[in-house]
Automatic annotation (TrEMBL):
<dbReference type="GO" id="GO:0033862">
    <property type="term" value="F:UMP kinase activity"/>
</dbReference>
<keyword id="KW-0418">Kinase</keyword>
<keyword id="KW-0547">Nucleotide-binding</keyword>
<dbReference type="InterPro" id="IPR001048">
    <property type="entry name" value="Asp/Glu/Uridylate_kinase"/>
</dbReference>
<comment type="pathway">
    <text>Pyrimidine metabolism; CTP biosynthesis via de novo pathway; UDP from UMP (UMPK route): step 1/1.</text>
</comment>
<dbReference type="Pfam" id="PF00696">
    <property type="entry name" value="AA_kinase"/>
</dbReference>
<keyword id="KW-0808">Transferase</keyword>
<dbReference type="InterPro" id="IPR036393">
    <property type="entry name" value="AceGlu_kinase-like_sf"/>
</dbReference>
<dbReference type="GO" id="GO:0005737">
    <property type="term" value="C:cytoplasm"/>
</dbReference>
<dbReference type="GO" id="GO:0005524">
    <property type="term" value="F:ATP binding"/>
</dbReference>
<feature type="domain" description="Aspartate/glutamate/uridylate kinase">
    <location>
        <begin position="99"/>
        <end position="308"/>
    </location>
</feature>
<keyword id="KW-0067">ATP-binding</keyword>
<protein>
    <recommendedName>
        <fullName>UMP kinase</fullName>
        <ecNumber>2.7.4.22</ecNumber>
    </recommendedName>
</protein>
<dbReference type="GO" id="GO:0006225">
    <property type="term" value="P:UDP biosynthetic process"/>
</dbReference>
<comment type="similarity">
    <text>Belongs to the UMP kinase family.</text>
</comment>
<dbReference type="InterPro" id="IPR015963">
    <property type="entry name" value="Uridylate_kinase_bac"/>
</dbReference>
<keyword id="KW-0665">Pyrimidine biosynthesis</keyword>
Amino acid sequence: MDFLPTSLPLLPGFCASRYNYSPLLFSSASSYFSFLPLSSVSMPASPSLCNFQSAPPRLLACCLSPDSANGRTQAATKLPFVLAADECSRSSPSYRWQRVLLKVSGEALAGDQTENIDPKITMAIAKEVASVIRHGIEVAIVVGGGNIFRGASWAGCSGLDRSSADYIGMLATVMNAIFLQATMESIGIPTRVQTAFRMSEVAEPYIRRRAIRHLEKGRVVIFAAGTGNPFFTTDTAAALRGAEINAEVLLKATNVDGVYDEDPKTHPNARLLHTLSYQDVTSKDLSVMDMTAITLCQENDIPVVVFNLNKPGNITKAIFGEKVGTFIGRASERAAAL
């Protein structure tokens, strides 16, 4: 009897609709079957394709990150994600958004500390992002740098002008991005850092088409160095990158539950606002994000969700489009968010 090895090359674009992870390592889930009889396989016209008449051995798709394209080792330091190949034939779940941009402030990365980075926070972010990218949702991240250096606060001190202070702040965001990238790669998430100005030894330069291609391949892209220009906040950078990559929503992770009618730190009875319009934010001068950022979101019809990063599960809920925090957008979108 003739036998056909089960290690036939998989079809181009295998699992492309849901699991675009790269690189992929395919192995048989059962060592019992090494070969299949040719009688169980019907060969179509194309010699590279085959249709199994009986169920083939279950295959596992293991995502190992980072890959050699970034000049690093092939295997992650932790266990990779393992996805059953036969799950690719199932219909993709319908979530509210398929491409999201997550904005994480520097203060949020610091956690309860006044400065620096809390590794528990970055690991919590990585684990929640991991739980959603396995469903085919594309995630880009913009990080702030306020936990290390805030240009607007230092401008004028010791003769430091605003432009120089802002450039130092941009470098601080790169430090946060590299730390977050390392955390994500340690649990097997393919991640790329792109900076607004060239730092080729540590990150890729920001190229819009390359960033979109990374997302399509299932990689998380972290945008650092803000817009690359002084006088613009990382909130504005998040709105700008979100518009450029055609993100469907901007998720702003903060240290509070959302937007309040008053400052909850000084007013214990402050009321959480579950939905707002863009005009509400601008006319009432609510401290959600700067006017440039919210206007950019409004002009490009990008809704904004403000939520508390410190509550476990909130990132997952926000990315899946579940009710969490404060939703800012058009009237029809706000009605759907209620």
